[in-house]
Each structure stands twice: as C-alpha cells, then as structure tokens.
User: What shape does this take?
Amino acid sequence: MDEFDIERVADPDLDEPVLIEGLPGVGHVGKLAAEHLLEEFDADLVARLYSEHFPPQVTIEEGRSQLACVEFHAIPEVDLLVLTGDHQAQDNAGHYRLTDRILDIAEDHGVGRAFALGGVPTGELIEEYNVIAAASDADLKEELEPMVEFREDEPAGGIVGVSGLLLGLGERRGIPTACLMGETSGYLVDPKSARAVLEVLQDIVDFEVGYDSLEDRAEEMEEVVKKIQEMEQGAAPSDDDLRYIG
Amino acid sequence: MDEFDIERVADPDLDEPVLIEGLPGVGHVGKLAAEHLLEEFDADLVARLYSEHFPPQVTIEEGRSQLACVEFHAIPEVDLLVLTGDHQAQDNAGHYRLTDRILDIAEDHGVGRAFALGGVPTGELIEEYNVIAAASDADLKEELEPMVEFREDEPAGGIVGVSGLLLGLGERRGIPTACLMGETSGYLVDPKSARAVLEVLQDIVDFEVGYDSLEDRAEEMEEVVKKIQEMEQGAAPSDDDLRYIG
Amino acid sequence: MDEFDIERVADPDLDEPVLIEGLPGVGHVGKLAAEHLLEEFDADLVARLYSEHFPPQVTIEEGRSQLACVEFHAIPEVDLLVLTGDHQAQDNAGHYRLTDRILDIAEDHGVGRAFALGGVPTGELIEEYNVIAAASDADLKEELEPMVEFREDEPAGGIVGVSGLLLGLGERRGIPTACLMGETSGYLVDPKSARAVLEVLQDIVDFEVGYDSLEDRAEEMEEVVKKIQEMEQGAAPSDDDLRYIG
Amino acid sequence: MDEFDIERVADPDLDEPVLIEGLPGVGHVGKLAAEHLLEEFDADLVARLYSEHFPPQVTIEEGRSQLACVEFHAIPEVDLLVLTGDHQAQDNAGHYRLTDRILDIAEDHGVGRAFALGGVPTGELIEEYNVIAAASDADLKEELEPMVEFREDEPAGGIVGVSGLLLGLGERRGIPTACLMGETSGYLVDPKSARAVLEVLQDIVDFEVGYDSLEDRAEEMEEVVKKIQEMEQGAAPSDDDLRYIG
Assistant: This one.
C-alpha cells in the first residue's frame, strides 16, 4: 500500500455536489449528523480511502475484517458527497495529507463547496442547542449569516483536525468551505446537537430530512444520563445500560 | 541500511505454502504458537527482515549481537512459511510498511493464504481455552466456520498491529487471511492458549504436532501463578521462581 | 499542499534588510517584541509560510478561518523583515526544515543578518530587565559586545526551536545571526522584557520606536499579578481579570 | 540543510584506524572514556556531522552558538578515529540513519574495526569495576575473549542506540565491531567505570594512556557522593557542591 490508497467502488451520479464531512470528534456530533444523512437518504458507497496515517488496525464485524479507512457516499437525490469514518489521522503531517487527498477526491467529483460538521464543547449540559459557524471566505460568510450564527472569537482554540483543515486547505484551493459546530457538553455522544447542526445544514443546502431515528438515539442518551445521575446517588446500573456512551 | 533490508539465508523447498504469523502480543500467544512449530518440525531459516521501524537495538546472546529483525522459517514437511520475531514496528506508518514487506516476501514464496496467530485478553484467568477467529473474506470465513468460532462483535477493539494489517492488507492483495485468537487472561505468558490456537490451526491447515514442550511451559507457568498467589498471601518467593513471567 | 507552501502577498521595497524573528516562546517575549514593531511602524504583509509541521489547525477570527502559518512583514522605513506567528513546528525535523525555509525566504529578500528575539526564564519575578545575547560568529559577537551582555555559560540549556536554529543554520549559510534574550520570570507574558529586548535591538540596528502600547500591556500585566497575589490571599477575582495571562 | 550535513574540517593522517564511539549514555561512561582519549593525545577535529534527527538546538559557550552535532577527531599517534558528542538521535529511524552515516564516514577514513564504549547499569554502587563485552562476529569475539569478559545473557535488555546499532549495522557492512560496557551504578557520572573501559581498550587496541585527569574527576564524584550521603543524613550542601552530578 502507498501512503494513501483509494478504492473506488462506484461512479456516482452527482452534478456539482456539496461535500459534507462528519468524522469522529467532540460529542461525535459531526459523525452522527453525517451518518444520519446516509440512513435517511438512498446513499451509495463511492470510495474508501486507506492510509498509513490511520491506526494500524482492522475492525471486526460478524467475523469479517475491515481495514481502517474513511468512506465517501453519494446521495444523488440531493447532490451530496458525504465523508464518514471511524478514524482521524494519527500524526501531524497525516492530518494535512489526509485532508489534501479528501479534497482531491472531492474535486474529482466536481465538489463546489464543502461543509465540515462538528461539535463545540461547552463543559455543561445543554438546554438550547445553538450552532456556530466559521467560513473560509468572506462571500460564503456573508451568504450564511442569515442562517447561522458567527461569533467574534469562537471557537477560541480554533478548529483542529480534518474539519479545520478542510477550511484552511479548501480556501487555498478556492473551494468555499464552512464549519458548522453544534454546542454540546463534550461529555457524551450528543444526537440532539447533531440534529441542531442538520437543521442549519438543510436550510443552507436546501434539503429535507426526518429526525425520528436521531430522536430515538437522543432518548436513549437521556436514559443514560438519568442512569448516571442515579449512579451518582448510589444506585448501581447494569453494564448494559451504559452501552450508548461512546 | 534502507528503510527495510532483507537478508536471504536459504531458498526453501516450498510449494504453495501457508504463512503463519506469530509476533509478540497479548499473552505472547501467537509468538509461543509459531515458535512451537519451529521446535517440533524441521524448520529452515529462510530470511531475516531488518527495518528502521524496529527498535534501534541489538540483542545479545552469548556475547554475540543480533540486530533487531523478524525471521521467516520454512517447514517444507507441511508446506508452511512461519514468521516470528521479538519486535513489532515502533510507529504508525511502520506497521503498514512492515506488513507490506512481509506480504511481499510471502508472495515471493508463493503463499496462497495466511494465518495470523494471537491472543485476545479476557481480564480473568481462563478455565476453558476458546479460540475466536476473524477472516478477511467471506469464502474463507465460510470455510473456517465448522472449525472455529466467529463472534458477532469480537474482538470489540478490532485487531491492531501486524496481525490486524495482515488481514487488511492481505485482503487488498487478494490473499485470503484469517486471524486465530486464543482467549487468555492478558496478565501472563500463556502456553495453554497457544496450544488451543495450534489445535485449531492444525485442523484447518491439516498437520499434526505434539504438545509436550508447550505442556511443560504451561506447568512452569502454573507454578509461577501458584507462587504469585502464595506471595499475595505473604510468602516471599526467590527471584528465580519468577523467571517465566514475561 | 506540499511540506511547505509559501503564499507571496506583496513584493516589498527592502534593500538589505535585517531579519527579526519573534515566534512564541518563554514569556512570549520575542513575539511581543516583534509584534510591537509591526504596530509602531508601517508594516506590509509580504508572505505567509504554511507547513504540515504546524498544528493541523485553523484559527477563527470574526467567523473567518486562517490556516496555521507564520508571517513575514516588511518595514521599509527601517529596512526590516519581521517574522511573527502563533506556531512553532510540532516535530524535531520540522524545526530544522521550517528554519531552512525561513532562511530561504530571508535570502530571497536579500537579508544580510538576523536577530532572533526571545526570553530566558529566571524562575523569579524580575526587578531589573537584563538582556543577554548569543552570536553565531566571532565578528558579530565582537560588534555586539559594547551593546549587550554575553555570559560565559548562558543560557545553560542552549537555545531551542527556531531561535536556536536561526543561529545554527544561519551560521552554516554565512548569515551572521544573534539571539537577544530578555530575562523574564517564565510564568507570565512579559511586555517589560520585550521592551528591554527592543531597546537593545534599536541600538544595534539603529531605529527609534515608542513604547507606550507595550507600557500599557505591562501595566495590565501588573494588574494581573496583583490580582493573583490577592487571590492567593483569599480574594476571588472575576474571570475577566485574568484575560491577559497567556 | 539536508537530513544529514557533514562539515569536513581537516584531512587526517590515519592509516587503517580503529573507530572509537563514546556518545552520551548510562553513567556517561562512553562519553567520558572517549573524551579522555581526546585530552590525553594530540587529537585533530576531522568532521562534524549535523542532522535534523538531533534536537533542534544550539549550545552556547562564551556567547557563541554551536549547532547540535557529533564530532570526529583523529589521533594519528595511535591511529584512532574518535566519535564524541552531546546528542543521540531523537527518533527511532534517526538512530538507524545516524549510525549509517557514522559508518559511511568511518569507511571513508579506512576504518577496519570499531569499538563502542558505554556503561551497563547495575543499580547499586560498584566496588570492583568489571567490563563486559559483546561482539558483532565470532572471530572478533574469539580474539577478545582473553582480554574481556563475555557473559551468557548480558546485557539482558540488549544494547540500544548508536552503540547497539554500530554492532548491528557494522556487522551488515562487514566491519567487525565490539561494545565494551563498564559496570556502573547508573545513578551518577562514573569516571572510574570509564577508566576500567579504557584499560580494557588499551590492551585490545594497544596504546598507553595516563589516567590522572579521570582520577581527579573520580575524586570529585566521590566528594559528591559523600555530600549526598550527608544530605540524606540531614546536612544541606551548597548548590556548588553538586555541579558534577550530570
């Protein structure tokens, strides 16, 4: 295998698609949101991207191995190219190079603009799920301003990993890119924050999607939170109750 | 030295051998199993593979140095190519590249399929030594199912290192590969788990091997466990009693 | 993006400029000093240097992203080329390669000599702000001796990062380079130490600059120190009071 | 600068020299021993080897900077090429590549055999300073056996870093290489262990050298040990008394 290895699975019927990125991160917000799109629409696996910058690992499902990768799915119905996966690069240069390969593939499919989805940690349980944004260029920012909040100095620590570099390297290639970040406590997988991000995204990109399955996961998470609170007050839950935490 | 350096020692008399990998890992199960094959059969050293991804180290035996490497031995009697050694790669990309070189050498010798041997930690002392499996493709899985157990979501953390990548990169080259993992506590070198793995392997690959020397090591380990238990109850063993732990 | 990517913004009107480096380090002394020059003079952004050796990160200001980089500004009025930024390289080889690229750019602009600005930690609050120096060659040392103090064995641990390598790699290219290090406690951002460094630098390079804004920042820091001392004695300041610490 | 950069300072008058390596390590035994040779004989600086695998650092002496490097000195009187320095490589591959460059330079000067000098930690204060050896090939081992002790399984952890790789990579190039390791506590710089190593080396290589200056340093170290022992019994020494520890 080379440093990167692309396995092309299908030639999708896309026009000038929008790239949606949802890799693991704070509260798994971006990952949950992107995977929700794959569940709700007819999505076709387009390509897998392997790399020696991913962990040296296979995952096992029903006895079959799958080499660490990220996956691109096409949703022709709403002209989206969706990037998901279980891994980020494991080293500094790897983040840069992985993002460059992702943008290569995006450009191969005629991507005109991109949205990185993620969470921004607040450190406390969320009542109202705000979404904040950052954009790689002034035009895109102006276009998005009616639909999503831009704050003066947030996120204070910048944006790290593939999401951040999609903005940074996307800008250098002339691909307008924005990051939509749902507020989340940072302690738990957060389907409600994922829904908030998708509600902003569907206004921007103009599609409609249902949220029943995310609501189900959100209710399961609320059960988990309740169990944890009980646990703190002395009751001991079974292992099974905790299965949705991470 | 280049990134990798192959020292070819002999040209083995193999037909379409099966590659058996047993490098250090949980309970040293894979390493013990592979080394047991080298002891029980007439095995010839075929090649050493050196790499700057191994620790910068020589081992010393009777005053002579040996540069860090992994070794390939041939067992012509049962058409096996056996990979053993004391080291894994020390960095992320190194795992990928090392496994690629291993597969290059395997292909040079006409390897048609491969088995990675290892242990899977249970966290408690084992009564019954189960072996679980994972396969790189559906046909191999189907073929193995009568002989070894596949579980839905195990091992939960996937398979890491050379064993995992043999499946992942083997699949990408079209070499059917399986990993056989003996359950083991994870706390001690475990010759019994190695025997359990070999008993599955000999059914699959069709060879016969005795287990006397592994049984001897297992008994020594049981002595060690007994000493540790006594130690926990207050008795102080001599250093010498502990020599077989790691 | 390649390992390094230079974005040339303007072609500055410089003659044989002096390179001034002020990247993050002890007490942010070098960074404060270099940024003060950019504030006090008419400075033009000349180039941005991006690298996969920087953190995989964008900073966000008013909703717009900026990929991690270091920046070169020209100050034609006093013939200076000033290097500033928020990042150092993240890995060992990266420090060497980044410094080499910086020197490439410096040579492209005809730089004849260079000064690295920084702080040297004393571990205690400073009364009198001394500046110590180190030079890459004997002639420069001799020239600087009337203007700045050279000590026999200081700094004891040498000079690490871009500042150190500007001396080491500058010497190998024949660019006389010196490092000016302001004593600083090492615990706080230290505008007074930055001023002390600039006062030495302006004698050496022959320019004049006001210090009002640095004095303002120094007073703010003194307020912070006072708050901390009160805090240690039991009073609880608001979060806002601490905003200038790092 | 490239990955490695050789600065040739002089063309030495050597015949078929022996390479002596003494870089930092356990008890600084190898470094002390090699530097003692440079002090006692007329030694000429032959070359400096720079590398991005060394720390990104300059050392400062009397206000002048010196980029991190290792140095080769020639001692024509006894036909030795001596490698000393303050640094080891900072990464895994760097150890391999650095040792390869060192062997390149050694071969350029016609080196026929090499000795790596070092310490082996015992964990307790030493009464009798034994020296143990390891050799890269059987002939050299046989030749050395009358002069130095080879033990069955020591050092148990092998030999790490440049010293170990000189054996491992030296063997692969056909340069007979041995490592001489003086027993040392591992807690302190140990001039007595360095002397023990040199006494073995001078028999093997056939030269004569005085030990007065090493004895002086040994006495200073004994003073330090005494101070520490007193300190443990309650007396507080001045900082100055501890200057020779590291």
Notes: The domain at 4-237 of chain B is CATH 3.40.50.10900 (Rossmann fold). Chains B and C do not touch (no CB pair under 8 Å). Residues 30 and 118 of chain B are 4 Å apart (CA to CA).
